[in-house]
Each structure stands twice: as structure tokens, then as C-alpha cells.
From TrEMBL:
<dbReference type="Pfam" id="PF02566">
    <property type="entry name" value="OsmC"/>
</dbReference>
<dbReference type="InterPro" id="IPR015946">
    <property type="entry name" value="KH_dom-like_a/b"/>
</dbReference>
<protein>
    <submittedName>
        <fullName>OsmC family protein</fullName>
    </submittedName>
</protein>
<dbReference type="InterPro" id="IPR036102">
    <property type="entry name" value="OsmC/Ohrsf"/>
</dbReference>
<dbReference type="InterPro" id="IPR003718">
    <property type="entry name" value="OsmC/Ohr_fam"/>
</dbReference>
């Protein structure tokens, strides 16, 4: 896997993934940024949420669960001192479908967190990661 980050100006950077997709990164105004893009640490959280959601949906599809929507809301806390690593991260899964099995949904989230989600396992080395599940009827 490869990526390339090119500095544009100020704190603006253009990130390109190995698969050819681009994303603008920027810093907050208090650090000279112009708020033109995602902060790098926000991108880590987005990566965690995407990685975990991908796993959960894959597991639920294999279990033949009729999922119609899935949202992951993430809240995180960072250390006060440098390096300001994440210390706590909470993932709240809202899974919508018809007659979903709560046991299957909870199992999918647990398997992602403990076995499949590389981002979760890496970030779990420095942060306490928790999750919960809300199931909604379609």
C-alpha cells in the first residue's frame, strides 16, 4: 500500500492514495490553516470508522442480515500533551434493517473490533476503544 502527500501552501496538502483517489488536508486557522480540508487526525478517525463499518457490513451480509443502512458516529479524546494521541475513542453503530438479529449485529461489531479491523487494533494500542450498537427497524 502506498500514499503520497504533496504540500500545496501554508498548511494545505493534497493526499493521494495508491488507488488514485485524492483528498485535501488542512490545519485549523489557529495553526495557520484555512479550513480547506480534513485535519490529519480527523482522517485517522474516518479511517477507523470506514474500516470497522466495512467489516461489520461484510459480516452481516454473510450472515444474510437484511441491512438497509449503517452509520457509525465516532467521538474521541486526545492527550493534552504532545504527542496528542487518541486516548479514548467510542464508536456508536446505528444499524437499520428488517428483522435484524441483535446477536448477529453485536457479534459483527465485536469481530470487527477484536479480529478484523486493522485500524481499530492499531489505534487500540494507545487508546481505549469502546463501541455500542443501536438497531432500528427499516
Amino acid at each position: 500500500m502506498k500514499a503520497r502527500i504533496q504540500w500545496v501552501e501554508g498548511t494545505v496538502m493534497l493526499a493521494e492514495s495508491g488507488s488514485g483517489h485524492a483528498l485535501v488536508l488542512d490545519g485549523p486557522p489557529e495553526h495557520g490553516g484555512r479550513n480547506l480540508g480534513v485535519r490529519p487526525m480527523e482522517l485517522l478517525l474516518i479511517g477507523l470508522g470506514g474500516c470497522s463499518q466495512f467489516d461489520v457490513l461484510h459480516i452481516l451480509r454473510r450472515a444474510r442480515q437484511p441491512v438497509t443502512a449503517c452509520v457509525v458516529d465516532i467521538a474521541a479524546e486526545r492527550a493534552a500533551e504532545d504527542p496528542k494521541v487518541f486516548t479514548r475513542i467510542h464508536l456508536h453503530f446505528v444499524v437499520t434493517g428488517r428483522d435484524l438479529s441483535a446477536r448477529q449485529v453485536e457479534r459483527a461489531v465485536q469481530l470487527s473490533a477484536e479480529k478484523y479491523c486493522s485500524a481499530s487494533i492499531m489505534l487500540g494500542a494507545t487508546a481505549q476503544i469502546t463501541h455500542d450498537v443501536e438497531i432500528r427497524a427499516a
